[in-house]
Amino acid sequence: MRNHSMYSAVVVLAIVLCASSLANAAVTLQQKDVLRAFIESRAQTRASGPAEPDTWADPASSFRHLPTKCEAPPAGTREADRIAALPGQPPRVNFEQYSGYVTVSEEYGRALFYYFVEAPYEASSKPLVLWLNGGPGCSSLGAGAMAELGPFRVNPDGKTLSRNRHAWNNVANVIFLESPAGVGFSYSNASVESGDSGTAVDAYLFLLNWLERFPEYKGRDFYIAGESYSGHYVPQLATVIVALAEFGLTDMNLKGIFVGNPYLDDYMNTKGSYEFLWNHGVISDEVWGNISEHCSFGRVEGTACGQAKKSFKIGDIDRYNIYAPVCIESPDGSLHSSSYLPGYDPCIGAYIDAYFNSPKVQKAMHVRTNTKWSECANLHWTDAPVSMVPTLAWLVDNGLRVWLYSGDMDDVCPITATRYSVKDLNLAITKPWRPWYTPDSEVGGYAQQYEGGFTFASVRGAGHMVPSFQPKRSLVLFYSFMKGVLPPAVSVWSP
Prior knowledge:
Blueprint lengths: L1 E2 H15 L12 H18 L10 H5 L14 H4 L15 E9 L4 E8 L10 E5 L8 H8 L3 E3 L6 E3 L9 E6 L8 E2 L7 H18 L7 E7 L2 H15 L8 E8 L5 H14 L5 H10 L8 H7 L17 E3 L5 E3 L10 H9 L2 H6 L24 H9 L3 E7 L7 H10 L4 E9 L5 E8 L4 E5 L6 H4 L1 H13 L12
Parallel strand pairs: 4-7, 4-9, 9-10, 10-13, 13-16
Antiparallel strand pairs: 1-11, 2-3, 3-7, 3-8, 5-6, 11-12, 14-15, 15-16
Helix pairs in contact: 1-2, 5-11, 6-7, 7-13, 8-14, 9-10
């Protein structure tokens, strides 16, 4: 037997560093593998290449040229995008579903694919949420919608769906966007390079056109949420919207952003990861001491630092949740979990891949014919700020509600790294670190609030994809974010 997840990560790293074609990859790329490979490749780029300019220093100037209204009615209609029923969905589905393409560039034939689920009850009064998965270059449909916070989970047969009782559309109307072009079902008819700026602009143009298709959501309270590399995507899209609000944008009533296990800082993710491993007993005091002594965690590291980092073995674990089971591939090709964790299946990526490559599913979702779906695309990424701290600070200064949260078992975007970035914001604490509780009196995690309403929270017992590991706790925290208040500080049964 072999560990399927770890095997995938090794293969993907080779793909990224050698610039091989996705079509020739032996395994399906997954979000966690792509992010790990991106971090490694960025480390090499920083060591040998020039520093990247800050393209987000003056957002108002950078994005003033973008339209704030649609000059002509965009192609496509709400009714044409309506999903009668997803193949294999459980009975008594009591909410509306839509999916389809929204063109963001007529010139280059670029269109983004979305899946939209309305709330089962009182959808007309509930807010609108856009969810973005990271990568960079991974599908919000495959991960967010079908493995995390969407209304369904794909079953092991790859053909049927089961209901997610803690789906976020219980409290909001949720769009899952496959972004940028080239990811999932989204496409471009011309070869284009991908990067942070282009991804943010295309997502903004998507929203502008989508609201023409669903005009009842114009002016509705609107939030942007995501995880992982969406630590870039979400604040950057919010920055475009907030900057353009100065020039008459009225249809997007953006209230806040909510980002989990965010990839924020090239440097601190390195230090934060090794510190996390030491804190959780994965590496010894001696190894951590050696790394601390020889590594500056800056732009260029010496040979001694590299040797110190290679002086230990992590073992066959999932670094996106170091306590979770892994997916095992048997000699006959079947997949199974290495152990049991209630509500979580580490092999779900394979089921999702089979489901979205079903012709019946693609027809029901209005996908272009002869389309091959995969969770992640091997994109050539051209621009990414070294740190997202200045962008987050700009959003807080401009009055936007900003919440970050971290599952506390993730080593790749660990809570230790995020805490360093939060510290760099240099905001005064208004509500000190304390536990927060779920309605059933469990400690859901810990939280701290800062001036300007900026909030950082942990989710206890969760890995990188928080809603996969702790669906109930993630829903409680998300609902609190939308209400603008921290979850309860005391248990209902406390004396």
